[in-house]
Specification:
The protein has about 325 residues and is α/β, with parallel strands linked by helices. Helices cover about 50% and strands about 15% of the residues. It has helices spanning about 5-15, 25-30, 50-60, 60-65, 75-85, 100-110, 120-135, 145-160, 175-185, 205-210, 235-245, 255-265, 275-285, 305-315, and strands at about 25, 35-40, 70, 90-95, 115, 140, 170, 195-200, 245-250, 295. The strands form two sheets. The chain has a six-stranded mixed β-sheet with strand order 1-2-10-7-8-9, with helices on both faces. The chain has a four-stranded parallel β-sheet with strand order 5-4-3-6, sandwiched between helices. Helix 6 links the parallel strand 4 and strand 5 (about 115).
Length: about 325
C-alpha cells in the first residue's frame, strides 16, 4: 500500500511542475454544496502529470537516457511525454486507433513518438510491452504502479488543504490510479471524509470488481468517456480501492454529456466527458451530503467541434 509519507514525498517532487489547481465553488449554480477541483487546468490538460512526473523523476539517469514508453487513451500519454521532455528522456506513447485527435496532437506536441494499436487497453499494453523489450525502454504504466498512485495522491492532499471541511470527494475511475491515490491520501489524513468513485455505467470494471471481491475483467466496455474505459482495474489500484474507498457509483452517457454541457455553459469550465463524470453524479442527486462535496474535474481535453457535436446530440435527443 502507498503510505502517506510516499504521497507527501511525491508532492515535493512534483511541486514545480504540477499546478495547485483552483477549487471553484458552484453551489449556487448546482443548488447544493458543490466545489469543482479543476485538474483540467494542469499542464497537458489533466491530473495525469502528477503521477507521470513522479515516476519519471524517480527513474535512474540511465533509464531516462534510454527512454520511456506507455500505453494510454490520451491524457496519461500527454503527461508522460511532458514529464519526459522536462527530464530529458525520449518518449513513446501507444494510443488506441480511436484516440481523440486533440490528445494525439498533445502527446506529439510534447515530443513523443505516437504509435497506434487497437482499441482496448489490453492491445495498447501488449504493443507497449513489445516496444519496451525491443528498444530497452522503461514502462511508465498509466495507473497500476505505486509511484503513479503516490503522484495522483498529491491531489487528495491538495483538496484537504483547500477544503478542510470536505464531507465527500467524488473521483472519476478508469484504471483506478486517481481513485487509489486520492483515497490513500485522504483516508490516512482524515478518515471521516467519504471517498466515492464514479464510473460510466458501460465501463464499470472497478464496481464489478469490488462487488465480486476480486479484480474482474469485463468482456467489453462502451462509453463516451474515453479515458474511463479499461476492461479491468489494476491489481494495486483495486487493493487500494478495497481498503480506502467507501463506494463506487455509476453514471450513464447522457448524464455525462449533460454534465459536460452544464460545466461549459453554467460554470464556465471546459471538461472532457471523462472529466465530467463526477459532476454528472453530483448533479444527478446520487450523492447525499450535508457538507461540501468536492467533484474532481479530471481533464479538459476536448475540442470545440466535439463540444458542439455533443450539444447537437443532446438537443436532438430532447
Amino acid at each position: 500500500m502507498v503510505s502517506l509519507a510516499d504521497i507527501q514525498q511525491a508532492a515535493e517532487r512534483v511541486r514545480n511542475v504540477a499546478r495547485v489547481t483552483p477549487l471553484v465553488d458552484v453551489s449556487d449554480l448546482a443548488r447544493r454544496p458543490l466545489l469543482l477541483k479543476c485538474e483540467s487546468l494542469q499542464p497537458g490538460g489533466a491530473f495525469k502529470i502528477r503521477g507521470a512526473y513522479n515516476m519519471v523523476a524517480r527513474l535512474s539517469p540511465e533509464q531516462r537516457r534510454r527512454g520511456v514508453v506507455t500505453f494510454s487513451s490520451g491524457n496519461h500519454g500527454q503527461a508522460m511525454a511532458l514529464a519526459a521532455r522536462e527530464l530529458g528522456a525520449p518518449a513513446v506513447v501507444v494510443m488506441p486507433t480511436t484516440a481523440p485527435q486533440i490528445k494525439v496532437d498533445g502527446a506529439r506536441g510534447f515530443g513523443a513518438e505516437v504509435i497506434f494499436a487497437g482499441t482496448t487497453s489490453v492491445e495498447r499494453r501488449e504493443r507497449a510491452e513489445h516496444e519496451a523489450a525491443e528498444r530497452g525502454l522503461t514502462m511508465v504504466p498509466p495507473f497500476d504502479h505505486e509511484w503513479i498512485i503516490a503522484g495522483q495522491g498529491t491531489l487528495g492532499l491538495e483538496i484537504l488543504d483547500q477544503c478542510p471541511g470536505a464531507e465527500v470527494i467524488l473521483v472519476p475511475v478508469g484504471g483506478g490510479g486517481l481513485l487509489a491515490g486520492v483515497a490513500a491520501a485522504v483516508k490516512q489524513s482524515r478518515p471521516s471524509v467519504r471517498i466515492i468513485g464514479v464510473e460510466p455505467s458501460g465501463a464499470a470494471a472497478m464496481k464489478a470488481s469490488l462487488d465480486a471481491g476480486h479484480a474482474v475483467t469485463l468482456s467489453k466496455t462502451e462509453s463516451i468517456a474515453d479515458g474511463l474505459m479499461p476492461v479491468r482495474p489494476g491489481d494495486l489500484t483495486f487493493a487500494h480501492a478495497r481498503k480506502f474507498v467507501d463506494e463506487v457509483i455509476t453514471v450513464d452517457d447522457e448524464q455525462i454529456v449533460d454534465a459536460v454541457l452544464w460545466l461549459f455553459t453554467k460554470a464556465k469550465v471546459v471538461a472532457e466527458p471523462s472529466g465530467a463524470a463526477t459532476v454528472a453524479a453530483a448533479l444527478g442527486h446520487t450523492v447525499t451530503a450535508a457538507g461540501p462535496v468536492v467533484a474532481i474535474v479530471s481533464g479538459g481535453n476536448i475540442s470545440l467541434d466535439r463540444l458542439d457535436e455533443l450539444r447537437q446530440q443532446r438537443k436532438a435527443a430532447r
